Amino acid sequence: MARSVLFVCLGNICRSPTAEAVFRLQAKGRGLVIDSAGTSGWHDGHPSDARASAEAIRRGVDMSYIRSRKVTTQDFYDFDLIVAMDGQNMQDLRAAAPEGSTARLVKLLDYAPGVSLSDVPDPYFEDNFSEVIDMIEIACAGLLKGI
Ligand code: 4NP
Question: Radius of gyration over alpha carbons of the chain, in Å?
Fold first, then answer.
């Protein structure tokens, strides 16, 4: 059973911090360690995208405490489960995984059978934050049941 979950996207300012904050709320009281990170490091130290935070706050989800960070080698030992937002994140994670990595790598939308996509679309360019948080909420609820 996973006790620690790391959500990963490209920039760690849109999708994975949204998933972190949504899942933290849903999993409240379960004692899980929850975090998020990006494969790129492009936005290291930055708060989440204001469009993602605004959409989250509308649904009662606070993302204001999150700062972007890059995935580290240590993450592959520290987290039981690493949850990729899309197939490219998954490829990048597999490439970065150290010898003896103990984390299980999965994709978020594998936990949302009712959602027809297999990748969470990148809202940074598509500006579809509402659609993206909808599917993140559904998939995180599925993930919580599945772990
Ligand atoms: P995220 O979205 O991976 O969901 O955080 C992106 C954020 C920034 C960029 C791309 C995607 N960027 O190109 O800077």
Answer: 14
Any idea what the CATH number is for the domain that residue 55 is in? 3.40.50.2300
Q: Give the residues across from 83 on adjacent strands.
A: 7, 106
Mean pLDDT by 10 residues, the chain (147 residues): 96 98 98 98 98 98 98 98 98 97 98 96 97 98 96
What is the rounded distance in angstroms from the CA atom of residue 49 to the CA atom of residue 68?
A: 10
140 is catalytic: no
Smallest CA-to-CA distance from 14 within 146, 133, 134, 139 is with 133
pTM > 0.85: yes or no: yes
- Ligand 1 neighbourhood includes 65 CB (under 6 angstroms): no
C-alpha 1 to ligand 1 mean position (Å)? 30
* Residue pair 143/111 in contact by the 8 Å Cβ criterion: yes
Is residue 36 within a helix (H) or strand (E), and if so which, with residue range? strand 33-38
Q: CA-to-CA distance for 81 and 106, rounded, in angstroms? A: 7
What SS3 state is found at 97? coil
Give the count of domains, the chain: 1
